Amino acid sequence: MAAQGIQGGRKSNKMTALVADDNMVNRAIHHRLLDNLGIESEAVGNGKEAVDIHCSGKNFDLILMDMDMPIMNGIEATRKLREMGIRSMIAGVSTRSVEHEIREFIEAGLDDYQEKPLTMSKLISIIHKIKG
Amino acid sequence: MDVVNQLQRQFLDYSASLHREGFLDDQFTQLQKLQDENSPDFVVEVASLFFEDCEKLINNMARALEQQGVDFKQVDASVHQLKGSSSSIGAMRVKNVCIAFRSFCEAQNREGCLRCLQQVTHEYSLLKNKLQTLFRLEQQILAAGGSVPAIE
């Protein structure tokens, strides 16, 4: 689960991902989905940790951002990351189905949005967007 | 050979019944497909995390509902979490109780919430037993030298 030790650098060409979700069941599942695709991932439990890990100099190809998280939610975290100039692919994942809430999340700076639960095919479609 | 075939049949039948009776939905099958030689215990591990999570959240809900002035937002937050993890693991009946539970939280209906709490505790306990049986069947197949059949 650990990303490369070099600040901002890469030891290999492996894709890297950050999972931001306050639920440990979801973190375990998302990690496994990513691992199956050969993607190294790290996990954080809220939006503030997602921002802090970038402040420490780490960078990821993909961020899977949950909407509802304590301390700082996914919408705020996405906004902050974009303000910081983070251009990584940010895919919002949530169980919310109310249109205006999803819209607010997307407008915060998402590249993609998927309804939970995340499946292999949903993750693959997110990754195709990065490569495409 | 016979023993393995018998156990495999038992496993498939039991698995099918869990789906038929609504205990598990397709999301659980998705998780089973993620299991491989690199992570042979993935499903058991995730199920354990889920049960840990369930117990913690159910306790939180019970405590919150015991208060003189119930903080329904707090109860709802726990139900939302449980809905999320039950949805992710494919625990359909637990998830469905959570959906009803959230409506009672919104309506600030303490009696309704208490009924749902009872239901969710019951469903979680049923599911835990059934999954333990399923995992036991898997172990028996492996111990007999067979492989666990894939669920389509």
From TrEMBL, chain A:
Positions of the Response regulatory domain: 16-131
Stored Pfam families: Response_reg
Domain of life: Eukaryota
The keyword Zinc-finger is annotated on this UniProt entry: no
Residue numbers carrying 4-aspartylphosphate: D66
Keywords: Phosphoprotein
Phosphoprotein recorded as keyword: yes
Record protein name field: Response regulatory domain-containing protein
Annotated source species: Hibiscus sabdariffa (roselle)
TrEMBL record, chain B:
Record Pfam families: Hpt
Domain HPt: 39-141
Domain of life: Eukaryota
SUPFAM superfamilies membership: Histidine-containing phosphotransfer domain, HPT domain
Gene3D superfamilies, alphabetized: HPT domain (1.20.120.160)
Ranges in a coiled coil: none
Alphabetized UniProt keyword annotations: Cytokinin signaling pathway, Phosphoprotein, Two-component regulatory system
UniProt-listed CDD domains: HPT
Subcellular location: Cytoplasm, Cytosol; Nucleus
Residues modified to Phosphohistidine: H80
InterPro entries (UniProt xref): AHP1-5/YPD1, HPT_dom_sf, Sig_transdc_His_kin_Hpt_dom
Domain notes for this protein: Histidine-containing phosphotransfer domain (HPt) contains an active histidine that mediates the phosphotransfer.
Function of the protein: Functions as a two-component phosphorelay mediators between cytokinin sensor histidine kinases and response regulators (B-type ARRs). Plays an important role in propagating cytokinin signal transduction.
Protein name: Histidine-containing phosphotransfer protein
Species for this entry: Hibiscus sabdariffa
